[in-house]
Amino acid sequence: MGSSPLFNVAVKGNDIKKESIIASTSVFIDTVIICTMTGIALVSSGFFNIATDATDLTQRAFSIIPYGNYLLTFSLVVFAVATIPCWSYYGLIGIKFLFKDKIKIQNIYKIIYTLCVFLGAVLTLNVVWSISSIANALMVIPNLVMLFKLRNDFKYN
């Protein structure tokens, strides 16, 4: 989605090659390794034919792994605890860019974000995932438009 550069540009390092390797490695680990392992676990479980939804499939697949339910719970908690402040930071960077460091608007954003975190904890899972998908699409669309518009400015070696 193009969100990780928001963290990468905040680094005050002097070695751009080192920072680039670190940035690309984190995306590789998250996208290729973790997503592939999860996909293999879900498909190899054989429950994709009988599961009623993604939550059911995931719970069934991890239940056949020794201590899989604990692993799944631990992973979800770690993911949630890491994701909430990360996305808050992403949004705050966007607000600062759009509104040129206006503290009042930043505080309004923080209140709205906190309310959204609360709503995410009390709404049904299907509603939360639907809102999440819409929010992700709203992030991806401008990135794709800008990549298309800037396509001639990219230099390939």
Structural features, described:
The chain has 157 residues and is an all-alpha fold. The chain has a domain at 1-65. 77% of the residues lie in helices and 0% in strands. The model has no long low-confidence stretch (mean pLDDT 87).
Overall spatial form = globular
Order of helices and strands: HHHHHH
Annotation, overall tally of beta strands: 0
Taking all Cα atoms into account, the compactness measure Rg is 19 Å
Largest sheet: none
User: In percent terms, what proportion of residues is strand?
Assistant: under 5%
How would you concisely characterize the structure shown here?
Helices cover 77% and strands 0% of the residues. It is mainly alpha-helical and 157 residues long. 1% of the residues are buried.
Describe the SSE topology.
Blueprint: H1 5-8, H2 16-45, H3 54-63, H4 68-99, H5 103-122, H6 125-149
Task: Describe this protein with a few key phrases.
single chain; 157 residues; mainly alpha; 6 helices; 77% helix; globular
